[in-house]
Write a structure and sequence with these properties.
about 130 residues, 3 helices, single chain, mainly alpha
């Protein structure tokens, strides 16, 4: 049981979580962007809009995994390798994820509601209202 929670194994588990979050978030974001670009010129049906909402939840999940695993990396470095906290790449990556988070916030608050309005789908209940 001790081997499971060794420093190396913890770092591998955190890295797996981090790469999973990156793959899920980035993959779904790219697919969502391509889908929106493809159908933005045409009227977006209720089904297509619901697909956009569904995919955006996976993007959010991927971003959440990036945040959680990134903070776990910082905690891991703090306890097991404090010298790694001096590496500027860590703080650069944290800044990039912060920018992605702010971008995601504005996409959800500004762009997706405009798609809903342009698509004449104002009658669809928001997922927050259910």
């Amino acid at each position: 049981m001790e081997d499971l929670f060794s420093s190396l194994n913890l770092k591998c588990l955190i890295k797996f979580m981090h790469l999973s979050g990156l793959a899920i978030g980035l993959g779904c974001a790219w697919m969502l962007d391509a889908f929106i670009i493809k159908y933005f010129k045409n009227e977006i049906s209720k089904d297509k809009y619901q697909l956009i909402e569904f995919a955006s939840k996976f993007v959010f999940a991927g971003l959440a995994l990036l945040w959680i695993s990134g903070l776990l990396f910082i905690a891991h470095y703090y306890f097991y390798a404090p010298e790694n906290l001096q590496n500027q790449k860590i703080w650069g990556k944290l800044f990039i994820v912060l920018i992605l988070t702010v971008n995601g916030y504005f996409v959800h608050k500004l762009i997706i509601p405009k798609i809903k309005k342009i698509s004449r789908l104002d009658t669809i209940k928001d997922s927050n209202e259910t």
